[in-house]
Automatic annotation (TrEMBL):
Organism: Komagataeibacter medellinensis
PROSITE patterns membership: ASN_GLN_ASE_1, ASN_GLN_ASE_3
Annotated ranges, domain L-asparaginase N-terminal: 6-200
Annotated protein name in UniProt: Asparaginase
Annotated keywords: Hydrolase
Family per record: Belongs to the asparaginase 1 family.
Active-site residues, as the UniProt record annotates them: T14
Amino acid sequence: MPRPVIAIISTGGTIARQAADPRDTVDYAEIGTNIGGDDLLEALPEGVRARFAVRGIAFSSCDSVEMTLPRWFELAGVINRTLLEQPNVDGVVVTHGTSSLEEAACFLDLVLDVSCPVVVVGAQRPASAISADGPANLFAALLVASAPQAAGRGVLVVANNEIHAAQEVTKASTYQLETFRSPDFGPIGMVEANRVIFGRMPAYRRHIGWPEAYGVGGTVPRVDICYSHAGADGVGIRAFVAAGARGLISAGMLPGMCTPAENVALDEAVTRGVVVVQATSGYCGGVVQRQELCQRGILAAGHMRPRQARILLALALMTGMDRDGMQALFDMP
């Protein structure tokens, strides 16, 4: 039986870092060193590696806090070119730092149009740590990427033997291994006893595709996130608008509400043509299109968390999508 052909695109992050002290699971990010994609594979037993025909592609070695939308456009371009030039590839695994992994996965899910599985995977502990989770996560990701039933489910995130839909997942814990969770709907599957098991299809998949406005050297419209808190006065909102923001995501207090002073600043932004989306800073739950938001010309983020809503809004602005089209995307259950 032929081995599944999997392209592994490495981008850096904890999964590709090591420290001098095996007890170090904190300072490695600043004082550790990088390892390459080949080193990640070498951490797997030979019998495991022999199950897959792996093609390694080095994309970057930067930490995920250094990632930007233009870099993710480059990453999406590498995935598209790889699948175009190597049509026998059965699946793609992207290794990524966990700090912005949920944003990377959401971005890829919104722009990619590919038929094979694309899996994003990271680690909570560096490769040098006692009981490093990178090898186990990578093996699980390879299993999912090579599973025919994983195709057609959008970009997936695999961690701690759970499979999550890209637009449902968030990083919930700073150091614990079970950090990736889908708070509203739960994981869509699992890896158990080396088997890939799916329990459901994703509840939705918002999709935009590759914006034609983004070419070589293209620019991404500025979209900022405003975090609400008791006594907030709207100064930050006005500063973002003055800096050229074309969109604002308001991470409001639950269930998606801001202070009176913030509301004044947000209304000012709307009158200046800035697209404002009301989200919530809560762990789960959505923001619905209530009457007050509609009257003020503010969109509701639905179940999208602020960081992911920012990506969707930036991409939608690039396509020239109207407000009704944007709201239809946010409204997906």
